[in-house]
Amino acid sequence: MLSDKDKAYYAWQLNVPGFGVEGQEKLRNATALVSRVGGLGGPLAFSLAAAGFGKIILAHSGELREDDLNRQILMKHDGLGSSRHEQAAETLRRFNPDVDVESVGENISEENVVGLVEQADVVFSCAPLFEERLLMNREAVRQKKFLVDGAMFNMEGQVLAVKGGETACLACLVDEPPEHWQRRFPVIGALSAMMAQIAALEGIKMLTGLGESQVDKLIHVDALTMNMRKIKVRRNPHCKHCKV
Known about the structure:
The protein is α/β, with parallel strands linked by helices. The chain is built from nine helices and eight strands. The longest helix has 20 residues, at 189-208.
């Protein structure tokens, strides 16, 4: 149940038609997993905290570097050389102390993916490596969880919303990590943040039933022309994840 404080804090979004108190209560009782919390995952996690998710689990290893600061908005300049997941958690707790934030100093791997996805109602895949994205996709499909996968390259971005076991998944489109793909790629932070907001909204819509979630569609944004397309995708009958 929402308290009077909650109703005051989230008053503007409680007025959104089709959302209301019921939608806010669903978010309050939901757990989101976000991996990782860099240029894409950071703005996304911030919006989840603003929306009032009950719990957010952050998974990200490594220390903050100078080339992270132009786009990783949960970090701070005096945190250079310090743990990124701890800085991100501190920022979110300071912004909304009513959200339970758990931070894990690990990237998604075969060793931790099952347990982390088990704890979540919705998984936000924000990792730069296909190996991690496909692991999260596999477990979301197997455990029948909601998944939102976001990605960008240069001035283009994409978001895929997945209802595990029901709709087309990431592995239906890409079954193996592309050869020669590297963790570092060209991108402007504003594009990462744009795709983060689209991904956050798709996760909120799936959890609350607000509007029409864009499952079975790949949302593609070309920021140079500001064109947005929704590309119809279908489940691959040979997808090794959907067949699990």
